[in-house]
Amino acid sequence: MELNDILAISGKSGLFRMISNNGARLIVESMVDGKKMPVSATHKISALGDIAIFTIEEDVPLGEVFDMMYEKTGGEQGPSHKDDPKELRSFLNELLDELDHDRVYDSDLKKLFQWYNILHVNGAFEEEETKEEVEEELKEEGKEEVESKGE
Predict the structure, then answer these.
(1) CA 34, CA 87: separation in Å to the nearest integer?
(2) Count of alpha carbons within 13 Å of 114, Cβ hemisphere only?
């Protein structure tokens, strides 16, 4: 999953894929409804690849947190962002022992779970799995070719 092409835009709910960048503005596509729209430099835009979760020791990149969530849920969707914040915090505590509760607000948790579920619905985690499987198959095929040539 390439999080640098997936954007969160202040004032707009959901996540967006960057389609093009012409310097003065971006063209993005909503991952919720598929609508395309221009976004100017006046909006605060954050690539998910640049976001991390606060912990007591060091911050954990969002991609790593999503991977942990994917493993914990067995590849299924996570809890809804509309669930009780205490339940969301409890779920995240199981993944991150050192979660900094003073700096991670309930609103942050809601965004985290909403974003994870949007990415899940859009197949972002399946793409990563498939990419890893293809790379592994290519490595194995390369080994077989070398072994057959060595005979």
Answers:
(1) 30
(2) 16
> What 3-state DSSP class applies to 7?
strand
> Would you list the DSSP string of 12-76?
S-S-EEEEEE-SSEEEEEETTT--EEEEETTS-EEEGGG-EE-BSSS-EEHHHHHHHHHHHTTTS
pTM, entire model: 0.79
> At 104, which amino acid appears?
V
Cα 52 to its chain centre, rounded Å, is 11
- Hey, what are 24's tokens? 């003065």
Cα separation of 14 and 85, whole Å? 19
| Start-to-end C-alpha separation, the chain | 39
pLDDT in tens for each of the 151 residues of the chain? 588 889 999 989 899 999 988 877 889 999 999 999 999 878 899 999 999 999 998 999 999 999 999 999 998 999 999 999 999 999 999 999 899 999 999 999 999 999 999 999 998 887 555 556 666 766 776 655 545 555 5
